[in-house]
Amino acid sequence: MPIASSTATSGRLLSLLSLLQVRRDWPGELLARRLGVSERTVRRDVDRLRELGYPVQAVKGPDGGYRLEAGSQVPPLLFDEEQAVALAVALRLAVATGAGIEEAAARALTTVRQVLPARLRHRVDALAVSAAEGRGAQADTDVLLALSAAVRAGEEVRFDYRAPGRPEADRPPRRVQPHHLVVRAGRWYVVGWSPEREDWRVYRADRMTPRTPTGPRFPPREVPGGDVAAFLSARFKGSPEVDAWPCRGEVILDLPVAAVAPFAGDGVVEAAGAARTRLVSGAWSWAALAASLARFDAEVEVVGPVELREAFAELSRRAGRAAGLPGGT
């Protein structure tokens, strides 16, 4: 009988903890109804949770109640099956974020995986994620936390910036009003407003060293277009605002669609015959677009515009000079 009573109490404590984790405030009467016990039993169970290290606070008011607060230590947590799987998957993906937390994430994943039921463990193990090689330096975790705090507080950041080939030792610290901290292709970027240049700027977080203290607070702004992901994508394409390549052309390649599609990137591909493909693609310059299309190693028919045709002509002249041909001028 004592064993059965102890088992029932332990199960009830887990149920109580689960309820406290999913809602800010719980009236004592409502908790008692959900658990099928008296309010006196709820009070005793709350005391037991406190003894285990859970900071459960009493809530004053007409109904009274309880709230699970943040404490000075991390007590054991309780997750349902969906939350446990989501946590394990997130930890497995953490290695691809470039946030410098791979070792800690791996240890946390081992801890979570250890207590998962076999059926859930198989689901998590089925997700195989490999970190891409050569993605470059990662952002320091403390730097990311400092930048994130500045974004939330709306405070200007002063920082040193390490740009390749540019000596920064004698330069004064830069200033930016950070609005977004985003990750793209395994790198973290700060998207912010530069009050000195009165324009939006994008900085790589792994090259930033924030200085303390932070600067003054600033009013929030909206990035051009209202979508930070689209704005960042546009900047990487060399476009100031619109998420589109500044140079865009159309060609027909003497290759079947199956040979073009895997290498077309964000271009538009469609069949133009049994073994020919129409490709609409873009780049940051006409020379870059011509060179990109020439890599298909096939006959190219330029549909337009004329700037692309001229870029192919210049590419041909450069190739002739490189090959030492008499007509390569």
UniProtKB/TrEMBL annotation:
Top-rank taxon: Bacteria
SUPFAM superfamilies the UniProt entry points to: Winged helix' DNA-binding domain (SSF46785)
Family matches, as Pfam families: HTH_11, WYL
Keyword Manganese: no
GO molecular function list: DNA binding; DNA-binding transcription factor activity
InterPro entries reported in the protein's UniProt record: CBASS_pafABC_assoc_protein (IPR051534), DeoR_HTH (IPR001034), HTH_11 (IPR013196), PafC-like (IPR028349), Tscrpt_reg_HTH_DeoR_CS (IPR018356), WH-like_DNA-bd_sf (IPR036388), WH_DNA-bd_sf (IPR036390), WYL_dom (IPR026881)
HTH deoR-type domain boundaries: 9-64
Alphabetical list of PROSITE patterns matching this protein: HTH_DEOR_1, HTH_DEOR_2, WYL
Keywords carried by this UniProt record: DNA-binding, Transcription, Transcription regulation
Protein name per its UniProtKB record: WYL domain-containing protein
Taxonomic source organism: Amycolatopsis iheyensis
